[in-house]
């Protein structure tokens, strides 16, 4: 990986961490990643860990649904 | 009517392929037609992935009521997001998101899909013959040499992981733009470079 790209990634990771403490993380991509991890855990014969990861995903998904359901609409009536 | 565990696994594999087909259609709309998914559209994909997770469990460990419960939770979550987006655009003059397909927008189709998931899962729960045990047995043979089940499982896993990557490129590590204009992470990386 070029040095400049790694710096850019590090900068975006720092931004992500600062946003985490402002309550703006988790991101939606994380939900898919967690579901993929849950599927792999189930495949690796860890069903109860898979259920735990699924429960976390569900909680984060509901957080995001609430976030997008309570933002101010850009609708002019 | 009696449903055997093998027959149930076949039906679950077909259902998982249908879920994969919907996710592939969403990818075609995104990459071929250039229609970037909005945050609510992405959450509907998450709902489909949750339904897919329940189906994957049925393929791995055999059909169990709690796997169908996971599917119902995924269907209810995805349906809630779809209804939220339908209601956003239900008032005349408030526009719509994306182009229509066969007269209905994607989120309306998603709502219909989630409704069908819930109905299909409820029907599958009626057949007790498919439940050999009520607990997951990790040491039992996975997939029971069901080739269609293996294929559907691998496809679903690839699509879920693929959506994680494409969503990361679209939204970056923060909140997605609403509506999205381009791939935010690529734009930010290009700006930083």
Average pLDDT taken over every residue of chain A? 74
Contiguous helical run count of chain B: 6
* Percent range of helical residues of chain B: 55-70%
> What structural class results from the helix and strand content of chain B?
mainly alpha
Overall geometric form of chain B: globular
Poorly predicted residue ranges of chain A: 1-17
Q: Please indicate the percent range of residues of chain B in DSSP E strands (runs of 2 or more).
A: under 5%
Order of helices and strands of chain A: HHH
The chain-level mean pLDDT of chain B equals: 89
Number of helices of chain A: 3
Rg of chain A, alpha carbons: 17 Å
Query: How is the quaternary structure best described?
Result: heterodimer
Low-confidence stretches of chain B: none
C-alpha end-to-end distance of chain B: 64 Å
Distance between the termini of chain A: 50 Å
Biggest β-sheet of chain A, characterized? none
Walk me through the structure.
The complex is a heterodimer of chains A (77) and B (193). Chain A has helices at 3-21, 28-43, 47-70. Chain A has 77 residues and is mostly helical. The longest helix of chain A has 24 residues, at 47-70. Chain B has six helices and no strands. Chain B has helices at residues 5-31, 39-61, 65-88, 106-124, 147-171, 184-192. In chain B, α1 packs parallel to α5 and α2 (39-61) packs parallel to α4. The longest helix of chain B is centred in the first third of the chain and has 27 residues, at 5-31. The interface between A and B is large, with 44 and 51 residues.
């Amino acid at each position: 990986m070029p040095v400049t790209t790694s710096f850019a990634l590090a900068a975006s990771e720092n931004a992500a961490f600062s946003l985490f403490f402002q309550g703006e993380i988790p991101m939606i991509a994380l939900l898919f990643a967690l579901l993929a991890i849950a599927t792999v855990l189930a495949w690796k014969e860890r069903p109860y860990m898979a259920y735990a990861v699924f429960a976390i995903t569900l909680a984060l998904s509901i957080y995001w649904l609430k976030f997008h359901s309570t933002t101010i609409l850009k609708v002019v009536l | 009517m009696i449903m055997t565990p093998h027959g149930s696994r076949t039906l679950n594999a077909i259902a998982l392929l249908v879920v994969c087909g919907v996710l592939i259609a969403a990818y075609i709309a995104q990459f071929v037609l250039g229609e970037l998914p909005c945050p609510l559209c992405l959450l509907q994909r998450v709902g489909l992935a949750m339904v897919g997770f329940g189906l994957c469990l049925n393929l791995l460990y055999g059909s169990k009521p709690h796997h169908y419960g996971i599917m119902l939770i995924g269907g209810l979550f995805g349906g809630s997001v779809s209804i939220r987006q339908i209601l956003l655009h239900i008032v005349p003059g408030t526009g719509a998101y994306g182009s229509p397909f066969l007269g209905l927008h994607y989120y309306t189709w998603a709502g219909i899909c989630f409704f069908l998931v819930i109905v299909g899962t409820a029907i599958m729960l009626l057949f007790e013959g498919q439940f050999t045990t009520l607990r997951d047995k990790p040491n039992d043979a996975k997939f029971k040499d069901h080739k269609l089940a293996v294929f559907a499982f691998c496809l679903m896993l690839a699509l879920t992981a693929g959506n994680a990557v494409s969503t990361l490129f679209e939204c970056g590590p923060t909140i997605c733009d609403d509506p999205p204009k381009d791939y935010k992470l690529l734009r930010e990386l290009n700006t930083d470079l």
